[in-house]
Design a protein that fits this description.
single chain; alpha/beta; 6 strands; about 30% helix; about 20% strand
């Protein structure tokens, strides 16, 4: 049985990505959790040496929990494109380069898909909640859809402007934040986390 976080607990969000910090912070608002980012604590970003989203989320959360002495929540997420055999997958952020320029990564994906009619893909998010004693709980959610070209929308971050979820007429880059949060891969993993680890 996973350990639970009570209202008023302090939680490190193990990310240096401002977009992820805002999105995860929004999801945590109803639970009375005090959120602090790994970046604001000056914690280094560990090298992501795992070969799955779950493995990378766990190692980031454990590193932040150990360094801070507080429970830590980490997300590892990315875009898996069927026509590219699941790439960029766990390398989604790295495809954007050191400057984190996702316009470059988006253009690369479109170029590599080329004339292939299969533009199916999935956003996958793994969440890991770790404690300073090494305890860790992990959860994974996914959102299926297809890739559009040209990119549409200025909202969201990362690959959102080219990803149109199944059943939607807008890309994640065009959606209002509340609408995106309601269906996102991260939200789906988060619902599992809440059911297992948050005080009702």
């Amino acid at each position: 049985m996973p350990r639970r976080l009570a209202s008023g607990s302090r939680l490190v969000i193990a990310t240096h990505n401002p977009g992820k910090l805002v999105e995860i912070g929004d999801l945590l608002t109803p639970f009375g959790i005090e959120v602090v980012s790994a970046g604001s604590l000056g914690l280094p970003e560990p090298e992501e040496t795992g070969d799955t989203f779950i493995a990378n989320a766990a190692l980031k959360a454990l590193a932040a929990a150990t360094a801070s002495g507080l429970p830590a929540l980490s997300d590892d997420s990315g875009l898996c494109v069927e026509a590219l055999d699941g790439a960029p997958g766990i390398y989604s952020a790295r495809w954007a380069g050191p400057a984190k320029d996702f316009a470059v990564a988006i253009a690369k994906i479109n170029h590599l898909i080329g004339p292939n009619p299969n533009r199916r893909g999935q956003f996958v998010a793994a969440l890991a909640l770790a404690w300073p004693d090494g305890t860790v709980a992990t959860f994974e959610g996914r959102l299926d859809g297809h890739l559009v070209w040209p990119p549409r929308g200025e909202r969201g971050f990362g690959y959102d402007p080219i990803f149109q979820p199944d059943g939607e007429h807008l890309t994640c880059g065009e959606m209002e934040p509340a609408a995106k949060h309601a269906i996102s891969h991260r939200a789906r993993a988060f619902h599992q986390l809440v059911a297992a680890c948050f005080e009702p």
